[in-house]
Amino acid sequence: MSDFSQNNAILSLRWLLGLLIFSLCMLQLCLTYRGLDNETAMDMAQVARQIARGEGFTTKFIRPIDVWDFSQKAKKSPKEETLDFDHFAEANHAPVYPYILAAAIKMTGYDDFAAKRMDTEKSNIYEGDRVISSVSTIFFLLAMVLAYSLVARMFDEVVAITTVAFMGISELMLQYAISGLPQPFMLCLVLAALHCLISAIQAYQLDKTRNVLLWLGLCFIFMSVLCLTCYMCIWCFAGLLIFCGFYFRPNGMYAAIGVGVMLMLVALPAALYLTPTGGVERKFIYGIFNGFGSDGAETLMRTASPTSIAFNSSNFFLRLLGYTFSQFNNMYVNMGAIFTVPFFLLALFNRFKKPSIQGIKWAVLAMWLCACMGMALFGEAKAISESQLAILFTPCFAAFGTAMVFICLSRMQLGESFNAIRALTVLGMLIISSGMFLFQLPKQLYIGIWTSARGIPHFPPYYPAAMNGKLHDMSKAEEIIVTDQPWAVAWYADRKALWMPRSLRDYTRNLETIFNEQGQKVQGFLITPTSHTMTGSGIAGVIRKAGDFAPLALEGKLLLLTPKHNMAFAELFSTNANPKSTARPLASLVSSQGMYRHRNFILGAEMIYYSREDVSEFNK
Questions:
Q1: Which residues, other chains included, contact 476 with Cβ-Cβ below 8 Å and sequence gap of 6+?
Q2: pTM of the complete model
């Protein structure tokens, strides 16, 4: 094949690949879209709406631990005697991505909640969700372009086209594209940083010190923005610094420059940003608790008495080793189930001719190993999570793996049949990598297009129409709702929501006291399928999830199982099992004689709202 014909073929493949990936993204976003289903995406969305409204970096999703921290700081500072629950400072998300979402929300008008209320006659999907998913989709498409240019720069056009094709039809990658999470944006930053790193390595090989400083400086800036998008990415930055310390000479000099950039662009802004909640050291302690703690970060976030939680240091190293090896074990799944990803480990034993490829290979390995350690300490095991960093290394792992497959084929001396066999090999790998997505696509099309013209939300546990409609109308903006689904209440209902603690004593002795001191009213308790349907291990799982508030979670379940009996399960809990307990019994809060005595069915028994005032007119 002539060079002209080959160039035309590659150009055609580029356009076909771009059209395919764009069409799949639009298919997910427009035809089969079911709304957001990730709590972090909803939380970031409501923070972004606050920013778009000019409220600053504030939140309506209130965690008990933050209430406690703010109250302790307010007691120590005479200038901050009151807590402003209407402008409650957000201290749990890195700031960059919410500001990007805020721009999209402002441009589409979704900062005005009243003007963008849901019309359930037309759709069951909240269109604000689609705005959030559109942002992540745009960054996903941009990441595909950056991945293509990076891989083509390292290897050739064929490897680049194959790698991007793997990523474009990977089920996990496409799920991230519409997840609303910052991972697609983070992927763009990592790819941009690696572009700069390649240029720095090439300049280093040519002994151009000034260019090395310039490109590494840009690389460190991209990595700093990455860290301000997700604090977990500091582990990736650490891996890059380790690589720079050993690769570039004099050893350690460029790494020291990177440390300086990180301190100036990451540590200093983070310190200022986290000052209202006790500073960086406070969040670091909470992060360490997630590694040492007996039951993870959720337990800590839902308590207003952190000193009472067990600090499990005995199993720390076992947990660290187990989670680290789990990252290796789940590497294939967490990187999109792409066939060539595991072959990256084989590429470590192959010496590539280009120094830039050799350098990038070890840089990616160092960053990934450090990220694995960070995820083992502070991350989650779920494939789709805001703390899942494995997806950021998918382009490089898949590219090196694909290159290794092609190298093996070239060494088989196939002669004129090489191109045909390589094409068949690529086709087979594509089918294997996209098997799950292609298998589920017809079902998704059938459900999304023909079964329900109005769309099918992710229920259980989320039903946006109930919160955007009934719950918003029967609640007050100035008061707080205690719920097991605060991220959804804050986003869909635009109401202040306190994450329901597990301990009844924690609520009645600590949180109620703080609310009374600050003049903040609690208007009711909302129980959703998050507590009674989305838990494992039956009743034991409900009790583990809801803690002392388990009777509320079980009441909805009992009503679903026995619809003819309108029982109030919480009525039975009028006294404490422990006679020495000083906490008020659950019935004092939610019963016919309790503080929140009015029971309102938002979505049948699936979603029950216990209110202080009678709002029965909204139930009609």
A1: 523
A2: 0.93
